[in-house]
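Summary of Year 1 activities. Much of the first year was spent building the evaluation harness for sequence design. The harness presents a backbone, in tokenized form, and records the residue chosen at every position. We chose the following record to illustrate the format because it has been used consistently in internal testing since the harness was completed.
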């Protein structure tokens, strides 16, 4: 199929004109491919957590903050400090590295190859102030307790809300 910009266009979900390499806090949600509940084994959860914590080894500008692994997604906060490096590194590059490294590891552990592990793209929110930062951290901490009601929990598929 030939690329046709009239048909094959992607809309960005990023803030138009925002520089995602600027210092600040970024709240991220990264979903597994088709929201499949793949992150249920301790080994897979550990692999994902380890790569999250290892991000500063690859990117001097990054400090991982609050983080939770759910069966079909992860939530986390990345803190960027653009002054820590000689060159600005955009948030997308750091998230791509995380997704790539974890996908390779997790797919290897699951004994599958050539299958997507993560959904294309990710959701992010620029955390704008200290109050919002506290709310985001609390939301992440509380997320596991809310899994039973999550609309993407397979136990809830077909249930009316």
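For this record, the design step produced the sequence shown next.
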């Amino acid at each position: 199929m030939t690329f046709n910009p009239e048909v094959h266009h992607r809309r960005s979900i990023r803030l138009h004109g925002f520089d995602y390499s600027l210092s600040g806090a970024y709240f991220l949600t990264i979903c597994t491919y088709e929201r499949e509940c793949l992150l249920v084994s301790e080994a897979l959860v550990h692999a994902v957590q380890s790569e999250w914590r290892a991000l500063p080894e690859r990117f001097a500008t990054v400090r991982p903050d609050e983080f939770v692994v759910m069966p079909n997604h992860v939530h986390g906060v990345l803190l960027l400090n653009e002054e820590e490096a000689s060159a600005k590194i955009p948030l997308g590059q750091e998230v791509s590295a995380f997704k790539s490294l974890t996908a390779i590891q997790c797919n290897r552990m699951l004994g599958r190859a050539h299958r997507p592990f993560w959904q294309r793209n990710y959701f992010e929110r620029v955390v704008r102030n200290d109050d919002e930062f506290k709310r985001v951290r609390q939301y992440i901490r509380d997320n596991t307790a809310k899994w039973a009601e999550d609309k993407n929990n397979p136990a809830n598929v077909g249930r009316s809300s």
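The helical segments are 42-58, 91-110, 130-142. Quantitative recovery figures across the full test set are reported in Table 2.
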